[in-house]
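FW: tagging you since you asked about this chain on Friday. Here's the raw sequence from the shared folder, copied in full. Didn't touch anything.
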Amino acid sequence: MSTAPTPYSAPPLVFPAGWTLAQVQDRLGNVPAERIRVNPPLGTATIDDAIRLCESKESLCEWVDGILVEKAMGVWESGIAAVLIQLIRNFLDEQPLGFVAGEAGMLRILPDRMRIPDVSFIRWERFPDRKLPREAAFRIAPDLAVEILSPGNTKREMELKLAEYLNAGVQLVWYIEPTTRTAIVHRPGEPARSIDADGMLDGAGVLPGFTVRLGEIFARAERGAGGLTA
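HL: got it, structure written out here
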């Protein structure tokens, strides 16, 4: 006997009396107002609403405290993510350690948070029988989360998102900054580590054996990801 999947619901967020839109923006990390969806009304949206927007190709939104927040990402940032995904997939062809997803990979990392890393990796042992859930949004936090920073992202937004990733159990987070060609590596309980274009991103204990020079990712993106054989 089959059962219907549990809806992606959560109790509506009740804002304190007298709150303004500015205070809502502050709660979300000072994201620009144009990225905040007001339909469904603030605090009442569900992950199902985000899924419908994605499936209709209308918008790609994260779900935060019952609010839909449009994901900030441009073509250049998307191209960088695509290069990194291909490099990880090539590595996984030889070392089948898990599953990698891109910028539409919805993950309910906490009961009231659905985030969409630009790149995410989840080890196979996290999935029963090594089978992927047949859901539009996996109810799991990734082992590796990668964010390609866009001009539309705010510093506070990314600080909040990092705290959520680490609180949810993410073991490795890469924040890649295309403008400065740098990256910051975050691991639970360790100081953040900054690397420049000549530095190496490595999978540590999450993707053991995977390494790539940061500058090579930008170079491959600039030439259209040609020759991806690494």
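FW: The CA atoms of residues 148 and 222 lie 15 Å apart.
HL: agreed, and The mean pLDDT is 90.
FW: great, closing this out.
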